[in-house]
Amino acid sequence: MRHLYTWCGILLVVSFSVVGDVTMSRAMKQVGDLHALRQRFGIGTVICRIFSNSTFFVAVAAMAVSFFSLLFSLSWGDVSLVGPAAASLTFIGNAFAAKLFLREKVDRRRWMAALLVAGGVALLAG
Amino acid sequence: MTFRKYLVLAGVTVFAAAGDSMLSHGMKQVGNISVHNIGSLFLAVSNPWVAIGILLLLAFFASYMNALSWADLTYVLPASSLGYVLLALVARFALHEQVSPLRWAGIALISGGVGFVAGGPSLTHHQDPGAPSGSAHSNSVGAAGPRNQQQVRVATGGKP
Questions:
Q1: Mean pLDDT per segment of 10 residues, for chain A of length 126 residues?
Q2: Residue B147 belongs to a domain
Q3: How many CB atoms lie within 10 A of CB A40?
Q4: Which one of A35, A105, A113 has the shortest CB-CB distance to B116?
Q5: Which of B57, B66, B74 is the best mutation test for A, with the most CBs of A within 10 A?
Q6: How far is the C-alpha of A105 from the C-alpha of B55, rounded, in Å?
Q7: What whole-number distance in Å separates Cα of residue B132 and Cα of residue B125?
Q8: B24 lies in which domain range?
Q9: What's the whole-model pTM score?
Q10: A125 touches chain B (CB under 8 A)
Q11: Which residues of B touch A50 (CB under 8 A)?
Q12: Which of B61, B69, B97, B144 could make a disulfide contact with A28, Cβ separation 3.0–4.6 Å?
């Protein structure tokens, strides 16, 4: 039963982390290139644009839920399982979500990168 | 990719690794925090290592947002994962910890993944909804290629 709780926790962490990353990416694309905006309008306008974007707040909320889910998962399972599993699955989940929801061109090169990094993180943190 | 953009990606990598390390070091000094004594969590912020860690993580977040404003998520995440490698190298050479062969294999895999993504384009350019059929292409000229531009100029009497 404890094992099931741990994997449910990992699934929660990965889901909210992917939602946070994807919505943050979408929010930043809606805001525009921050460097170009700062050069043209100044830092005040950049901050106003970011804080007037509702998608940004959804992203921050999802990231916060992901963080607290990680804390709960760590209280149910071992850090040597929860840490690497959550980090690796987040890389894979982000590649799928970016292709589906952000319509990014995830070619063979990017799939290989996501898989290699996910495998590397699992080995490094395991 | 310009030098400034590489610098932003380096910022994402270094600030995350340094922030996590400082926060971890500081929280070990602070000790265990009980749920019944949640006020001690706020006291933890007064520890200089924790405070510097939080500042570095804020810098990481700013760099991450900056990177996502001009690059794809599937480019930024693998490209900035060198932080894991950086942490392992710091553990081995600065803290003189033992790094097992499995962890060296992990470092090699992450470095390979970063190499894969670093050679490719950083942003997917989406076609206009009215453009001819075809999916989005990364940094490609697509429907506005030289041949098509020439045809447009001919059709508009030489005006771009």
A1: 83 95 95 92 92 95 91 80 85 91 89 90 79
A2: no
A3: 11
A4: A113
A5: B74
A6: 34
A7: 14
A8: 3-121
A9: 0.79
A10: yes
A11: 65
A12: B69
User: Does the structure show a pLDDT above 50 at B160?
Assistant: no
B65, B69, B73 ranked by CB distance to A104: nearest:
B73
**Coil vs helix vs strand at B124:** strand
For chain B, give the mean pLDDT: 75
Tell whether B139 is covered by a domain.
Answer: no
Q: Between chains, do A29 and B4 touch, taking CB under 8 Å as contact?
A: no
User: Residue B147's CB: how many other CB atoms inside 10 A?
Assistant: 8
Instruction: Work out the minimum CA distance from B141 to partner chain A, whole angstroms.
Output: 14
Task: Count the domains in chain B.
Answer: 1
Q: Do A104 and B72 touch (CB under 8 A)?
A: yes
**A122, B88: Cβ pair inside 8 Å?**
no
pLDDT in tens, B58-108: 999 999 999 999 999 989 988 888 888 888 887 788 777 788 888 889 888
pLDDT one-digit tens code per residue, B1-56? 788 889 999 999 999 888 888 887 888 787 776 667 767 777 788 889 989 999 99
Task: Among B73, B92, B139, pick the best mutation site for testing chain A contact (most A Cβ within 10 A).
Answer: B73
Structure tokens at B48: 């200089």
The phi, psi pair for B27, rounded to 5°, reads -70, -25
Strands (E), B85-153: 124-125, 137-138
* Two structure tokens written together for A44: 């005040």
Domain presence at residue B88? yes
Closest residue of chain A to B138, computed from CA coordinates: A105
Residue A66 three-state SS:
helix
CB contact under 8 A, B73 and A105: no
Chain A residues within 8 A of B112 when measuring between CB atoms: 116, 120
Q: Could you tell me if residue B14 is inside a domain?
A: yes
